[in-house]
Amino acid sequence: MKDKSRALVERLVSSLGMENFAELARWLGVDPSVINRAIRTGKVPESWIYKVAYQTGRRLEWVETGKGVELHGNEPPGGELADTGHAKKLVSVLKDFNEEELETLQNLAELLIGSERPVRRNIFAQLKTMQETVKVCSRRR
Q1: Per-residue pLDDT for 54 more than 90?
Q2: How many structural domains does the chain have?
Q3: CA distances (Å), origin 27, targets 7, 37, 47, 55, 105
């Protein structure tokens, strides 16, 4: 348990480009003893995992386990939008949205269209992290 927790905390540190646990503690706003206690007890707070995944664009599964694809956007290519049926599914889902939700999606689309590639990648990484968080939380119910 202690080895898994240490490996997890080390992934948090390296994901943030930090050198040690003290830097991670400062970033999280906790005393360094809290980091050591989390490793010792094998109870690393999920909020740390979510925060690092969200801030760095890493996949929750990778941050938590070190397995799978590390970064969002590094998945194998999925083909063109029309070829995958995503466009039809998206249109069918939109009919259930209210006016405010549609406006928010339109604003997001306009933001994505007008943004540089790195900004788009960051936005999508954050959206994917939120999606994974919802999936993880639903499985735990």
Answers
A1: no
A2: 1
A3: 18, 17, 13, 11, 32
Does the predicted model carry a pTM greater than 0.85?
no
Q: Is the pLDDT of residue 120 over 60?
A: yes
8 Å CB contact between 12 and 21: no
Question: Which of residues 8 and 59 earns the better pLDDT score?
Answer: 8
Asked whether 87 and 139 are in contact (CB, 8 A), the reply is no
pLDDT band at 86 (very low <50, low <70, confident <90, very high): low
- How far is residue 29's CA from residue 23's CA, in Å, rounded to a whole number? 10
The DSSP result for 26-90, as a single string, is HHHTS-HHHHHHHHHHT---HHHHHHHHHHHTB-HHHHHHS-S--BTT-SPP---HHHHTHHHHH
CA-based angle 13:27:130, to the nearest 5?
A: 80
Q: Which domain holds residue 45?
A: 1-141
CATH code: domain of residue 136: 1.10.260.40
